[in-house]
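Give me the 3D structure for Oxygen sensor histidine kinase NreB.
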Amino acid sequence: MTLAFPPDLSAAPTVRAFGLALAGFACRAVRAHGVQVWAVIGGSLVVVGEEGRGLGLSDGTLAARSLAGGQPLAEGMLSCLPFGGGVLEFVGADPEGVEALAGLAPLLALALEGVQAREVRRGRGRVAETVEQLVRRLGGSLDLPEVLTATAETAALALGFGRAFVGLFSEVGEGRARTGEVFTYGFDSAFTGGIGVGPVSFGRLVDRGEVIHYERARDLGTPLAAGLAELGPEVALIAPLRARGHPLGVLYVDSLTRGARASEDDTWLVLALAEQASLAIDNARLYATETRKREAAEALREAGVALAGSLHLPDTLSRLLERAVSLFGADAAAVYERQPDGRTLTIRSAVGLSSEYMLRVRAKVGAGVTGRAVERRETVAARDLTREHLGGGSRYTRQLLAAGRYPYRGVVGLPLGTRAGVFGALTLYWTEPLPLDLDDLAIAEVFAAQASLAIENARLYEEELRREREAAVLLNVGRLLGEDQSDRALAEAARLSTLALNAARGLIALTGEGGEVTRCATFNLHPPGAAELASLLAQVGRGPRPLTRRHALPVAGSALIVPLHGDPGAGGRPDHLLGFLYADDPGSAAPGDRVLALSRSVADQMALTLSRERLLSALARQEARYRQLAEGAHDLILSSGPGGEITYANPAATRLLEPLTGPLLGANLLRLPTPASRPALQAAWEAVNTHPAGGRAEIEVGPYRLEVRLSAVRQAGAPHSVLTVARDLSELQTLAAEIQRRGQALEAATSRTLELRSYLTLFTQAQEEERRRISRELHDDTAQVLVATSRRVGRLARDLAGPQRERADDILGDLQQAIESVRRFARNLRPSVLDDLGLLPALEWLAGQARTDTRLEVSGAERRLAPALELTVFRLAQEALTNVDKHARASSAAIRVAFDVGEVRVAITDDGQGFTAEQAQARAQAGHLGLLGLRERVTLAGGDLAVDSDPGRGTRLTFTLPG
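Predicted structure for Oxygen sensor histidine kinase NreB (963 residues):
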């Protein structure tokens, strides 16, 4: 199949005429359903001619790929044939016809280049002259309205169409746009309303940068004709305005003359004018933006200075509203404050709003413009609240909107945030639609940030003033009651407290040891009766609490009551009640959190001051008690300062040491021993600072050998002192030397091993007998004497009166404590429960006496053992539990007794820190012989001892004894 090149293609006057002729020729030649001719114009591939049906299948993608690759392509019913700067796209073409037409591709390319060259030569002079004319007309102007007006006039005159307008986009969305104010030329009546751009036109203008060519005769019935119906043009050209890749708006030129036409030259001319106008518009907008930024920055600086000029919140809010109305031209403005419930917003200050509006509006967080701004913490703007479905923030505004009586249309909500959270919102109102653009809203956000900072500073200043006033109240109350606790001082404290709590009436009631009210001081209040005070006392809780009218005193609308809890250091419990503070007011509003917190602080200050005297008295009694114990002790007790200077020595120390060392008070403890034992004392002294248990050493002072224990006595805010307790080891050393001598003699003769065992057994029995004797004497003699003495002192106390009776009562209390100490000492030496009730009750008593939580478990048939064996088992358990209390750091322990045939097995277990065999050996070498003593006692009784312990897993000691 051979095709002849049509001669009319080379003679086409324009590229579009060439495209139409080529489309008709190609459609007939290849017998296609439809043909499109694409050509590269202005760097874009555009359709210049169409013929036939089915062209909606094409979106230009296949044509672009074919042109880029320079090869024919086919997909489904579509096929493409590139030629030079153009592409033929077929719908349902005959492949043989396409192949035949491909032979004409070089001639088609030459013809297209010739047409384009003639078109350029013909239109270049006109376009250049028109663009130069527009440049001269603008003269470098940066006035945007002047630039837009000159562009419209130049385009209309250059094309001879008579009418033109320029509209800049105010809204650009997905596939749609709308212009703002429109600048016209040639229209009978100027119009300023926006012009909408639909999806199809938006795609051609904005996405592809094409000029839309409209002709009524050709485009009648299309969506474009419907959109231009109001303007009624015969022919129109619409060109895009773009700068730096961003759409600016449209240039529209039309003619009302019947039969008017627009050529390709006109299209190029409009496009060139649009490009030149876009540059001028972009420069003017940049200049206007920079000018606006400078003006906004200056205005914001002045606003910031004005807002920073006051630290009082009401004044700050007044200045804030004044500046907001002036800066943004609002008809009204209000500052909403978020209430403590976190859900409600009320107007704190406003300008331009009616009194009814301010009183009735209570906005909800999350509802309306203001509520949404607070919830989202971002600016919320309504251009026309009567049309936008944002609703009202309160019931009142919703009613006004529903009735069509809401007075404002444009509304902007700006959140006011502080470090403590959202304070509220600044809301601006306009009676007309919102006049602010995006730049204005950005300035408003900066202004809101400045306002937030000013509000934060004002609130911090007011909070600081409030704290100073509260601190002054606390200081005055503490100083007043610290100097004088008379009824007059108590009444003055009630007055200060009541005024500080913003109450009208108040009282302070103090309770006695029995819990009843003993003293009461009032302010602005008639002293209540005993029944009323008892009723108030029944309402006292663990902290401040508001009272309802039913529980308050008569006439009060609201009240609060605060307990005065005593200091446990004064001898009372942590919840010991000294009294209560009461305040009320005729109003019904309950006291807020701030008032409750202040009342707690005032009550704590009162309680601290009131309990000071009791604390001092208790300390004096404790000091006298400890001094009495120290004065009567047989051990040597000395107290020294941080440098070792002795500040106290008990009589035992004075009697023993002063004949050798001279006066002890003022002497240095570290220099008392002989030079040979001073290093040991120095090491123990240093251990006081590093070891919680203090230090221990054996020293020599003259002929005496003393065992000393040093421990730190720490006081808050002062250097610690050192308490030294010493015991004379001379007799013990003599005994130890005798035992060592006998032990050496026994070691020399292995045959006397049994004799040594027997001796130790007898020695232990003698020790137990001695303990029994001492215990019995303490219980039967000493304790009875003390009991008789206490009864005599009690009878004497009943005969005395006043201070002498109090002294007798103190002596009686001391005697009771001495009786209890003697009985406890007697029980520790030899518990009577072991002799009277047997082993198991004694072990149960022992478990109850241990510091570690201990339980007793028994298995097997219970039976009484031989007295000696029961005593051995008791002493073994006693020593084992003592070791648990001292070293195990356990939270619980257990004594398990198992009665088997012919033997008894006792296991002492704990969940403490445990130890290894190496640790046990090291402790034994360091002088801790508890475990060795247990093993020796078990051996003497003919039994076995098993030790099971690991670090972190606790310890288990198992004694197996015959019996």
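Confidence is low (pLDDT under 50) at residues 569-574. Let me know if you want a second pass.
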